[in-house]
Every structure is written in C-alpha cells, then in structure tokens.
Amino acid sequence: MSLKFYTNPMSRGQIARWALHEAGVEYDEKIVAFDNEMKSADFLAVNPMGKVPAIVHNGKTVTECAAICAYLADTFPDAGLAPTADERADYYRWLFFVAGPIEQAVTDRSFGVVIAEEQQRMAGYGNYNMAMDVLDQMLQTNDYVCGKRFTMADVYVGAQVGWGLAFKSFPERGSFKAYAERVQSRSAYIEAKAIDEKLIPQG
C-alpha cells in the first residue's frame, strides 16, 4: 500500500482515520505506543514532534489533523469531499478557525489560562466565549461547514465538536449537539470509530 498511517487509538489519530474512511483510502496502519515509541528515532524521522497522527503517501509526510483532512480531500477527489469553487471560502475559513482559535481557546481553558481583557486583542481567539459564540452562530444557520453538503472540513470540525461535548470542553449548546449527531451518524465515522475502540486495549 502506498499510504502509511501512523496513529494511536487514544489520540487525534481518530480524526485522521475517520478522514481516511470518508475518502475511501486503503492504508497500512502502524500503531505508535505512547510510552517510548513516539520518541524513538524511527518515529521521529517521520514526525520530529513525536506526535500522531501522521501519514506518508508517495514519499511525502503529512502531519496535523487539519492538514491531513485537506490533503486527503484534494488527493482523492473521487470521494467528492473537497470544496467546490463556491464552497472554498467557507471550507477553509471554518477548517482553520477550529484548528486555530477554537483549539487554542479550549487548550488554554483546560490549562487554566485566563486571558485578561486588555490581552484579548493579542490572542487569536480573543476569549473562549467569543470563539464558541462565533462557531455556534455559524452552526445555527448551516447543517455543515459549507451549508447543506458534507465536506472533509466537517470531519475535522465535527471531531472537535464531538470530542468537546464528550469531554466537557465545549459548552452544551443546541447547535453543537445537533451538528455532532449529524456527522457521527455517517457510516465512515461509525466504521472508523469501531476500529479505534477495538484497538484501545492495545494502545
């Protein structure tokens, strides 16, 4: 197989696996253990950050979940998950809004970092409530990131919303719950999730 997938079932690798299944891509899987394998010379040669997921396709390495999602949509267009010309602005806007401001806001809040009002202009996400309000407003009026059609951006955004609700790092808002239910009902999500749940005892 030409695509190698490095992951751990208890990691963001779940996002990449879902993306692979949505794209219909065959892959050769390598489970990377947390204890010492992620910092091994072999894996650091793949990703010097020592983190999963990563994919290697045709000799090129892609890391970072949002990048993996976008790469798979572009590289395997038959799945129809890349944006059309009309969808491109929304697709990239919300993909990177969630990968940037939302993830930073959630991480800071989880670590107890409080952004003072006078510092908010320097923080890309402003403050946690502002970032969540912006995403909430979009999902109140759209079924998916690009409107009525599911795209690969919904794999990344949907995974973050779903995990955020499950781990209480997102507020329980109606738009978030409804969106998570929509994306998690997809067969590719269910299939990929079942694989990771089966692998967790080995992770």
Report what the structure shows:
The chain is of the alpha+beta class and 203 residues long. It folds into two domains: 3-80 and 189-202, Glutaredoxin, CATH 3.40.30; 88-186, Glutathione S-transferase Yfyf (Class Pi), Chain A, domain 2, CATH 1.20.1050.10. It has helices spanning 13-23, 41-46, 65-75, 88-110, 128-141, 153-166, 174-184, 187-199, and strands spanning 3-7, 28-31, 54-57, 60-63. The chain has a four-stranded mixed β-sheet, with helices on one face. Helix 1 (13-23) links the parallel strand 1 and strand 2 (28-31).
Question: What is the CATH class designation of the largest domain?
Answer: Mainly Alpha
- How big is the Rg? 17 Å
What's the N-to-C terminus distance? 23 Å
Look at the helices and sheets and give the structural class.
Answer: alpha+beta
Short description:
The protein contains 8 helices and 4 strands, in the order βαβαββαααααα.
Compile the SSE list and pairings.
Layout: E1 3-7, H1 13-23, E2 28-31, H2 41-46, E3 54-57, E4 60-63, H3 65-75, H4 88-110, H5 128-141, H6 153-166, H7 174-184, H8 187-199
Parallel strand pairs: 1-2
Antiparallel strand pairs: 1-3, 3-4
Features:
203 residues, alpha+beta, Glutaredoxin, Glutathione S-transferase Yfyf (Class Pi), Chain A, domain 2, 2 domains, four-stranded mixed beta sheet, 8 helices, globular
